[in-house]
From TrEMBL:
<keyword id="KW-0472">Membrane</keyword>
<dbReference type="GO" id="GO:0006465">
    <property type="term" value="P:signal peptide processing"/>
</dbReference>
<keyword id="KW-0812">Transmembrane</keyword>
<dbReference type="GO" id="GO:0004252">
    <property type="term" value="F:serine-type endopeptidase activity"/>
</dbReference>
<comment type="similarity">
    <text>Belongs to the peptidase S26 family.</text>
</comment>
<keyword id="KW-0645">Protease</keyword>
<feature type="domain" description="Peptidase S26">
    <location>
        <begin position="16"/>
        <end position="222"/>
    </location>
</feature>
<dbReference type="Pfam" id="PF10502">
    <property type="entry name" value="Peptidase_S26"/>
</dbReference>
<feature type="active site">
    <location>
        <position position="107"/>
    </location>
</feature>
<dbReference type="GO" id="GO:0009003">
    <property type="term" value="F:signal peptidase activity"/>
</dbReference>
<dbReference type="InterPro" id="IPR019533">
    <property type="entry name" value="Peptidase_S26"/>
</dbReference>
<keyword id="KW-0378">Hydrolase</keyword>
<dbReference type="InterPro" id="IPR019757">
    <property type="entry name" value="Pept_S26A_signal_pept_1_Lys-AS"/>
</dbReference>
<feature type="active site">
    <location>
        <position position="46"/>
    </location>
</feature>
<keyword id="KW-1133">Transmembrane helix</keyword>
<dbReference type="InterPro" id="IPR019756">
    <property type="entry name" value="Pept_S26A_signal_pept_1_Ser-AS"/>
</dbReference>
<dbReference type="GO" id="GO:0016020">
    <property type="term" value="C:membrane"/>
</dbReference>
C-alpha cells in the first residue's frame, strides 16, 4: 500500500510543479505587461504616415506612470495615476477611449489642458494660431491613393508628418474645442481618416481624453506586416515590411 501511495504521489507532484511553473511565467508576463511594456498591433490607417496598418509596436507603460487602465480589464482598484507624468505635445499614445473605457486607440497628443483648438479649411489652429506646415512629396506607401502630405510644426517645435485628402473633408472645419484640465486632445496623423478627439464619444469618437485613460507611449515599430498577414499565419510571413523593423517613432 505504501508503494502504491508513493507511486500515486509522483504524477500529482509533477502536475503541481507544472502548475507552479506556468503560474510563475504568467505572473512575470503580467508584471511586465502592467509595469514595463506592452505590444500592440495597428489595425487601421488612421496614423499614417507614422504608423501603417499591420505594424506591431512597442508601448512603454512607465512613461506616464500607472493607472487602473495599465492593468488588464481596467479593474476599479484606484483613481488617477501613480507616479503620473504628463505627456509631451506630439507624443504618440495608446489610451482607453472614454466612451467605454475598454477600447484601445492610438493617436497623437495635439492639445494640452487649457488649449483652444479648431480646424479651418484643413488647417489646425492652436490658441488662435495656425500651425505652420509645408507640403512634402509622397514617399513610400500611401494608403488611399493621391493623399497630400505635410510637415506640420507643433507649438513646442516638434515636427510631424500629416496626411489628408484635401481641405474639404467633414473634419476639416470644426467648432473651437477647449481642452479641460486633466484631459488631452488626440488626433490621428491621417487627418481625414481618423475618428479622434474632433468627434464626441456619443458619435463614436474619442472626445477629450482623461489623463487616467493613458496606457503608454508608443516608442517604436517592432515588426510590420502588409495587410492580411499575421504572425499566426506562417504562409504570410514573407509579406513583411523589413524596412520598418525597429523603426523609431517621432
Amino acid at each position: 500500500m505504501a508503494k502504491t501511495a508513493k507511486q500515486a504521489s509522483g504524477p500529482a507532484n509533477e502536475a503541481w510543479e507544472t502548475i507552479k511553473s506556468v503560474g510563475s511565467v504568467l505572473l512575470i508576463v503580467l508584471v511586465l505587461r502592467v509595469f514595463l511594456f506592452q505590444p500592440f498591433t495597428i489595425p487601421s490607417a488612421s496614423m499614417e504616415p507614422a504608423l501603417y496598418e499591420g505594424d506591431y509596436i512597442y508601448v512603454s507603460k512607465y512613461t506616464y506612470g500607472w493607472s487602473r487602465h495599465s492593468i488588464p480589464f481596467s479593474p476599479p482598484l484606484f483613481d488617477g495615476r501613480i507616479m503620473g507624468k504628463a505627456p509631451q505635445r506630439g507624443d504618440v499614445v495608446v489610451f482607453k477611449t472614454p466612451r467605454d473605457n475598454r477600447t484601445d486607440l492610438i493617436k497623437r497628443v495635439i492639445g494640452m489642458p487649457g488649449d483652444r483648438l479648431q480646424m479651418r479649411d484643413g488647417l489646425l489652429y492652436i490658441n488662435g494660431v495656425a500651425l505652420p506646415r509645408q507640403a512634402v512629396p509622397p514617399a513610400g506607401r500611401i494608403g488611399y491613393g493621391n493623399d497630400l502630405r505635410f510637415t506640420e510644426t507643433l507649438p513646442n517645435g516638434k515636427q510631424v508628418q500629416t496626411q489628408d485628402f484635401g481641405p474639404d473633408g467633414p473634419l476639416d472645419d470644426t467648432d473651437t474645442f477647449v481642452v479641460p484640465e486633466g484631459h488631452y486632445f488626440m488626433m490621428g496623423d491621417n487627418r481625414d481618416n481618423s475618428v479622434d478627439s474632433r468627434v464626441p464619444p456619443e458619435a463614436g469618437g474619442a472626445g477629450f481624453v482623461p489623463a487616467e485613460n493613458l496606457e503608454g507611449k508608443a516608442e517604436f515599430v517592432l515588426l510590420s506586416w502588409k495587410p492580411g498577414s499575421s504572425l499566426f499565419k506562417p504562409w504570410t510571413w514573407l509579406n513583411l515590411r523589413g524596412d520598418r523593423f525597429f523603426h523609431r517613432l517621432d
